[in-house]
Predict the structure.
Amino acid sequence: MKQAILPLLYLFFSINTHGQGGTVIIEGQILGYDSVKTIEYSLSEYYELGTFTRIKPDSQGKFIIKREIPKTSFFSLIYLQDDTYHSCKLIVEPGGYYSFISSGRNKNDLKHHTPDVYSLYTIENNAYLKRDLGQMYYNLIDNNTMGFIYRSDWDLMNPDSLIPTLKKRINSQLSLFRELLDTGEINQRFYDIAKLNVEYTQAYRLATTIYSTWISERYSIDDSIVRNKLIGIYPEIFAMYPVNKEVNLQFYNGFDKYVDLYLTYLSDCEDGKFRPRKKKGDAATEPLMNSDGHLNEQAHSTYRLLKSMNNMASYGLNAGAYGREVLEMNPDMDIEIRNLYDRLLAKVDEFDKLAEIDFPDGIIILDEQKPITSFDQLQEVLANKPALVDIWGTWCIPCRLQFQYQNRLKIFLQRYEIQIVYIAYEYGNSRQKWENIVKGYKLEGFHFIANELFTSDFEKYAGKIIKFPTYLIIDKNGNIVESDAYFPSQADELINQLKQELNL
């Protein structure tokens, strides 16, 4: 079954220079358009920020975008197809012309790798393909920030190999872009952006792998010598690739997350020794609270902007207060970013008011009295009735996007007495945020936050490490009969699957 893990696109991609002035032209086509209702895009000089505009492709999935841009920017595209969120980033220049065709990707590829990217040219009405290597190599830079995915990429039991491996991987990727720069296939601006992303992506990947290995029981290493050597390497990474580097780090898509690691490292240092600790409080805002005095002006401004925007978008704790503080610090903020800020702040204010109301009827919180620690305990609650299980997290935007489709299932689930269970995987102390989202979306059914005991036990029964979102079907005997069910956005397919698996 399909998984919404924000994969990238198969692209046929071209660059030309017949755009005039500051106008950028982007032409595209979504193949298999029958399941794609709308697409959303943004153009921003910041990798992760920008106002998203919704457009509807024509009957063949084609669209064209013409926009004025003042400088080198990032074009971001996202759409939902076959229960998979497809996203893409392109580097675009004023006066440039870009075209691509999206045909999706291998949805089972956990690492989100982008396939080949091509240029499309036409000669005497005969189309042929030519690789646009610059954009192709750039899209192959895997910018995913889920560090645990990459643990197998590093020989953690051999710490002395890690820094040489890091350097080797960076040099290998950069050599591709240096060749293109030398031959004139990419300009210096493109190279600088690509170099930044190659270096800091690999640095982030190693740093977050070491950190998660140290603090997570799931990935713990018993050998104390090895553990100490790993932690000794951690500050080396930040020395090689500093957060205060005098370059425009806003062009690195994971800059705020990399700074999070750096600030966490500083907070865990005592007497020159690094002692990682499990955090208390909201994981999204703790590094932000400790950012003063550790970053230069440029890095601090970019970090707080990216951090506060992402925090508001995910309804993080104190998101409104931090957002207003950043506004006060940046009175000359770009008008587009300011408009996005204002809209996010309004949503955050509305969201925060939910803390003042009670849970609506039909919402049952299972762990108010005591935690659910095993799958057997959940089965007792279900009381020999079938269930649809929704695995989600407050930080998971695709999870929240699926909530809008739940009403399409409501009548069917009630008719056949199928219960719905929402199990939240959370990090840090975000219970109030979790409660507000449950209230805001009026998610009728059973709810609880999974602890480590339940997570381990449940994944044993499910036979998989849970991705987000994931939907499972449990029969009346308490058996997981489908561990990768369709999403609510595909209500017809999910209903047929429920009928088949539950013999309705």
Notes: The first helix runs from residue 133 to 139. The chain has four domains: 1-137, 141-278, 293-355, 363-502. The longest strand covers residues 73-81. Residues 1-20, 106-117 have pLDDT under 50 and may be disordered.
